[in-house]
Each structure stands twice: as C-alpha cells, then as structure tokens.
Amino acid sequence: MSDIPFNEQETFGSQHPDQLERIAVRVRGVPVPQGSKVIMRGRLVDVQSAKLKRWRKDVAEELEEAVAGRKFTGPVFVFLDFHLPRGKTVRRAKPTVKPDIDKLARSVLDAITQSGAWNDDAQVISVHAVKQYGTDFTGADIVIREAA
Fold first, then answer.
1. How does 126-141 read in b/e, with b if 16+ C-beta sit within 10 Å?
2. How many CB atoms lie within 10 A of CB 98?
3. Confidence band (pLDDT; 50, 70, 90) for 46?
4. DSSP 58
5. Would you report the helix, strand and coil content of the chain in percent, each value rounded to 5?
6. Starting from the edge strand earliest in sequence, which strands make up the sheet with 76-84, in order?
7. Helix, strand, or coil here: 29?
8. Sign of CA dihedral 21, 70, 67, 129
9. Predicted confidence (pLDDT) at residue 140 exceeds the cutoff of 50
C-alpha cells in the first residue's frame, strides 16, 4: 500500500475561484513511460508512441474533468502512485524492472500540462513517485497539491 494521500477523485478549491488547492484523480489503464526514442524514416519518435499518446490522453481527460477550467498557478507538489500489471510468471514482490519510474513520471507530468491543470511542469517543485504491482487495478493515482 502506498503512502500517497488519495481519494478516488477529489478537488479542493483555494480562496481564489479560478485556482486549485489540491486535486486527486485515478487513471485506469496500463501506465506508459515517455522517453525512449528511436529514429524512424529520419525522424526521432517515441518507441511506444501509439500507447503513449493513448495513456497521456487518458490522464489529460481525467484531469480536465476534475479541474473544470481552474488551474494551479503557483508551485506544486505531485504524488504519483503507479499500479503496474504483474506478469503471470513474475514472483518478485516489487517491480524492480522496466519501465523506469522517471519515464513513467515524465509521461504523466506532460499529460498534466496538456490537460491545462497548470501552465507548465516547471511549477512542480517536488515529485514523489511509487511503482508497485496493482492488486485491484492498473493505472495511476495522481495527487497535485499547492505548495504553501
């Protein structure tokens, strides 16, 4: 079990009606890393571009619905809890194999930017990410909290 403070989908407003204080969403699906690139036909492309586009779209849609036109305007903390599928023959307790956690985080942070929940992922001053094998679902729990 993760130590990320999560409830299925919650939004807390700040003193300003157009800003957010905290938001939590659950995105179902198989998390896809972003970062591995190859050259195809003279262009640099993501190795898993079709899966990555779908994953980022799913993350962005969940966040767009949750933020409802509001956004984080200042520094934020991000908590990411990735629930990965466990292969049928996997015996290890923790997913100490690919995908790399930093590449999983990168795909989610870029999707959050795409959703409009913040202006730029440069606003993130701290990221706490966990990857584990999912027991009840695969996907990601995402919590964004305004930094005090």
1. ebebbbebbeeebbbb
2. 10
3. low
4. H
5. 25, 35, 40
6. 10-13, 20-28, 139-146, 76-84, 124-133
7. coil
8. negative
9. yes
C-alpha–C-alpha distance, residues 24 and 5, integer Å? 9
Q: Quick one: which of 80, 104, 126 has its CA closest to 32?
A: 104
Query: What was the pLDDT predicted at 47?
Result: 65
State the residue for tokens 């305004």: 146
Tokens of 135: 């027991």
CATH superfamily of 10-146: Holliday junction resolvase RusA (3.30.1330.70)
Please tell me the distance from the alpha carbon of residue 121 to that of residue 99, in angstroms, as a whole number. 21
Query: Between β-strands 139-146 and 20-28, what pairing exists: parallel, antiparallel or unpaired?
Result: antiparallel
Strand segments, DSSP code E, in the chain are 10-13, 20-28, 37-40, 43-46, 76-84, 124-133, 139-146
pLDDT tens string 82-91: 999 998 888 8
